[in-house]
């Protein structure tokens, strides 16, 4: 190297990528932004696509909603957790506020009296505002779409004042929509739980929660004996959901969330396996603070 010249080293800083279900501006996008502000969200059409992106190393993490307090569990995500090998690193509750969003300003009174109003949104969002829609837009035609944010994008592109969407505030901001009516969800206690997961197991400092899939052999006392293992470990359960392994099988699959004991999950898993149970550990992680509605 010639004297007086300084060798420059190019340093590449890898930005975290999170696969999310739905378009930018969705509730998945909001949760990802507030969980990891410096991460880049990569939209995927389906939950299966999110899991595939993580498995194929296209993204570092995936983020999927797993249940909503009003709509209930998202069965597809539970199925994917059973089928795919992932590791949960965090969960978070997002407070959901649904808004009626149009391409431009229009009065609710005008919409209420009109016969040509169309409302686009995802099925869970429509279900969460069912009573509000019946009261304020009884004549509206409801069109079910695959995504709340994409519905806003379509409505803004169409530009028809009487064609609107139900979605969050971030969707309106992202695509230039106008909020016609705020907070139209029927119940203010509207929360969605999201799981952030990666492909390989990684330690999480100060982990307080564990999740596993427990498969029994179908014996009548199998679940009772399994639950006694958690009691003996002084370990309380926060969720227990059951699904049949198949229509022809007496075996059941149980998704269990539990408070992580001091010794971690290993002693619990060993005790369950001694009883003849099959255990798939989904993660040991901590909960992020509640994300308030926008």
What does this entry look like structurally?
With 294 residues, the chain is α/β, with parallel strands linked by helices. It is 28% helix and 32% strand. It is built from ten helices and 15 strands. Strands 1, 2, 3, 4, 5, 11, 12, 13, 14 and 15 form a ten-stranded mixed β-sheet that branches. Strand 1, helix 1 and strand 2 form a beta-alpha-beta unit. Helix 7 packs across helix 8. It is elongated. The N terminus is likely disordered.
* Share of β-strand residues: 25-35%
Radius of gyration from the alpha-carbon trace, in angstroms: 23 Å
Q: Total helix count?
A: 10
| SSE order, one letter for each helix or strand | EHEHEEHEEHEHHEHEHEEEHEEHE
Task: Please tell me what the overall shape is.
Answer: elongated
**How is the main sheet built?**
10 strands, mixed
- Termini gap: 56 Å
Q: Could you list the spans in which at least 5 consecutive residues all have pLDDT below 50?
A: 1-13
Helix content: 25-40%
Number of strands: 15
* Backbone structural class: alpha/beta
Mean pLDDT comes to 91
What topology emerges from the helices and strands here?
Layout: E1 17-21, H1 27-35, E2 40-44, H2 47-55, E3 61-68, E4 72-73, H3 75-83, E5 87-95, E6 99-102, H4 108-112, E7 118-122, H5 123-128, H6 130-136, E8 141-145, H7 148-158, E9 163-167, H8 169-175, E10 178-181, E11 191-198, E12 209-215, H9 222-232, E13 237-244, E14 252-259, H10 266-274, E15 278-287
Parallel strand pairs: 1-2, 1-3, 5-15, 7-8, 7-9
Antiparallel strand pairs: 3-4, 3-11, 5-11, 6-9, 6-10, 12-14, 12-15, 13-14
Keywords:
15 strands; 28% helix; 32% strand; alpha/beta; 5-stranded mixed β-sheet; 294 residues; elongated; disordered N terminus
């Amino acid at each position: 190297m010639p004297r007086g010249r300084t060798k420059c080293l190019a340093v590449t800083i890898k930005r975290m990528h999170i696969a999310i279900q739905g378009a930018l501006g969705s509730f998945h996008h909001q949760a990802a932004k507030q969980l990891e502000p410096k991460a880049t969200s990569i939209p995927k059409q389906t939950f299966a696509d999110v899991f595939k992106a993580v498995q194929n190393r296209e993204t570092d993490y995936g983020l999927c909603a797993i249940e909503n307090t009003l709509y209930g569990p998202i069965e597809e995500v539970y199925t994917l957790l059973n089928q795919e090998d992932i590791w949960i690193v965090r969960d978070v509750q997002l407070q959901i506020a649904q808004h009626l969003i149009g391409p431009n300003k229009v009065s609710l009174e005008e919409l209420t009296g009109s016969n040509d109003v169309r409302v686009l949104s995802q099925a869970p969002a429509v279900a969460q505002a069912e009573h509000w829609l019946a009261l304020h837009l009884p004549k509206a035609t409801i069109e079910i779409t695959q995504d709340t944010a994409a519905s806003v994008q379509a409505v803004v592109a169409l530009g028809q004042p009487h064609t609107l969407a139900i979605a969050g505030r971030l969707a309106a901001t992202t695509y230039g929509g106008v909020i016609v009516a705020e907070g139209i969800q029927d119940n203010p206690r509207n929360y969605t739980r999201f799981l952030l997961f990666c492909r390989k197991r990684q330690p999480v400092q100060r982990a307080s929660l564990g999740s596993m899939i427990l498969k029994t052999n179908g014996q009548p006392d199998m679940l009772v004996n399994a639950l006694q293992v958690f009691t003996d470990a002084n370990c309380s359960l926060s969720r227990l959901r059951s699904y049949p392994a198949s229509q022809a099988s007496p075996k059941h699959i149980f998704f269990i969330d539990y408070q992580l004991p001091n010794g971690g999950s290993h002693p619990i898993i060993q005790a369950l396996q001694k009883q003849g149970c099959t255990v798939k550990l989904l993660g040991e992680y901590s909960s992020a603070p509640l994300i308030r509605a926008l």
